[in-house]
Amino acid sequence: MTAIQIILFSGLLIISIYVYRRFRNSIADAIVIAIFILGGIIFVLFPELTTQVAHALGVGRGADLIFYLCILFFFFIILKLYARIRKIEQTITSIIRENSIASAKKMKEDSTNQ
Amino acid sequence: MRNRDIYIIIPVFNERRTIRTVIESLLPFEYEIVLVDDCSTDGTTDYVKDLPIFYLRHEVNLGQGAAIQTGISFALLQNAEAFITFDGDGQHRATDIDNLVKPLLLNEADVTLGSRFLPSAFTNISFFKKGAIQIAKSINFLFTGQWLSDAHNGLRAFNRKAAGVLDLKENGMAHASEILFKIHEHKLKIKEVPVNILYTRYSKKKGQPVLSSVKIFFDILLNRIFD
Fold this sequence. Notes:
The complex is a heterodimer.
Chain A lengths: L2 H20 L4 H19 L2 H10 L4 H41 L2 E2 H7 L1
Helix pairs in contact in A: 1-2, 3-4
Chain B lengths: L5 E7 L6 H8 L5 E6 L6 H5 L5 E4 L6 H14 L4 E4 L11 H9 L5 E5 L11 H18 L11 E4 H7 L8 H11 L4 E5 L6 H6 L5 H15 L1
Parallel strand pairs in B: 1-2, 1-4, 2-3, 5-7
Antiparallel strand pairs in B: 4-6, 5-6
Helix pairs in contact in B: 3-6
């Protein structure tokens, strides 16, 4: 086993423990994540496999294939996060708006009443 | 329509230097004034607390679009008949409001937009800002199919129908374009009215730098994808 394999392997191990502790309750999540981690372990142990897959898809090297897929994946994640941030923003806005309308006051009348 | 049914919505963020003068210029007309304080940190409240106005405050700074929508939502609840958006930095003039409201009364329009570039309007706009507005006009035309003589002018009037369907989602500066999209979407009748805008050194400093129009453009683009 080479040094990089040890690093990647321990990384995968830590991630899987972390994920296991957090998402124990959803079976669908657990299956998807298990597939990813297993895939990761297999490709770390047998890196030549990625090259074979890459060749099958018309890409020269396995590392390149993973690089391209990562770009797609992260772009998707950014869009998802952006949509979620906007949703949260709208929720916050409507709470603050309702609050400010509920506590609206007529300045002068208030001061004469007090 | 009585002037008491006309609600002037003034969104402010740290405008203590001008806000009192702006409100005092509006008071003689006896409009209802709704000041929406978008979480100012300069003590704007202290400068207006003895004036007969409605005061609303956001607990978090949300942006001008959000403040305008808060004012409109509030005025709708107060049974306002006309809704005016008015800037707090002193660039708009109270005497223009009457001209903006007139077409609403005559049922000629649901929305009136103040324009700096119609004949008889006066403005001392800078050359670069004028160029940026030309670009903004073209973008608005692309998205809404409406060729207007001005873009992103903060002085506008809505009737109840228009105010009710507005529902601005753009908290930041892209709300100006969003208003045009909503007009287009709900097929509201619009009319442009010449208004006089005076840029002071102060309002220029507070206003939008020309470059921020690029940011607004991306806001519009992204948000049209997601909403």
